[in-house]
Write a structure and sequence with these properties.
Elements lengths: L4 H13 L2 H8 L3 H15 L4 E4 L2 E4 L1 H25 L7 E7 L1 H6 L1 H11 L3 E7 L13 E4 L8 E16 H6 L14 E3 L12 H5 L6 E2 L3 H9 L4 E5 L9 E4 L6 E10 L6 H22 L5
Parallel strand pairs: 3-4, 3-5, 7-8, 7-9
Antiparallel strand pairs: 1-2, 5-11, 6-9, 6-10, 6-11
Helix pairs in contact: 1-2, 1-3, 1-4, 2-3, 6-10
Organism: Ruegeria atlantica
Protein name: HTH-type transcriptional regulator GltR
Pfam families: HTH_1, LysR_substrate
Amino acid sequence: MTPNWDDMRVFLAVAREESLSAAGRQLKIDPATVGRRIARLEASLEAPLFTKSQQGYLLTAAGERLMEHGLKAEEAMRAAAGAMAGTSKTLSGQIRIGAPDGSANYLLPQVCAKISDANPDLDIQILALPRVINLSRREADMAVTVSAPTAGSLLVQKITDYKLHLVATRDYLASYPAIRSIQDLSGHRMIGYIPDMIFDRELDYLVDIGVDRVALASNSVSVQLRQATLGTGVCVAHDFTLPFHPNLQKILTDQVSLTRSFHLVRHQGDQRNERLNRFAQALTQGIREEVERLEAQVSP
């Protein structure tokens, strides 16, 4: 028996969420119905698709094979829907963007609000995670990343460069020994990422500077900046975040100035989806303009 698309949607949701209840919330149906649909699909295919473990519902070998075909079917359905939606003047439906929390907190809210104003029937979701977004399992429709991925069937577009500098509060700088060189940082409390949770080499800022100890660490940029604004130490900050933290001051700008880039990453199969193409264009332009606007407000 050939699976119908409704059953395949349920299967893909469980495969991604690894939970009947989470899949049900995504699909807006109750978990018992999700379970019955999976049981019906397994019976029709005469193969178990999931194993139940402490981690949740995990794909069997048969499930992995079905997943490959399910993703292709999903891409075809999305392309068809996108082609039809692309004829409308405004966008509708739901689009989810994955992003590291720096851009998710300081750039995407205002960029997405502007896109939403122009497309009132569009639902935009921002998935902020301190790790690489798994596009192959459709955790998101597209992702903003710091490094451009080199593996997988993906569309990668550079959005813009952005700057980072060392910062601390004026009160902190007035209360502790002067920082005139990188070597002086050894006498100060450093704030940064948890070393073994840095998911992208481009985020390992302090190693690039030569700092080998992080006294206050978090996997979240927002937490690091909050710690810095409390006057507890020195951290590396994106220049575009500084207008939101006026008590932070850049230091050692003549010795430490980092440049990184944002990229937009999408599924290769979505290149024919006019709806997602239009959204991606608005998103990249919005991020580019917002970085430029915020960095222009920061003193050299």
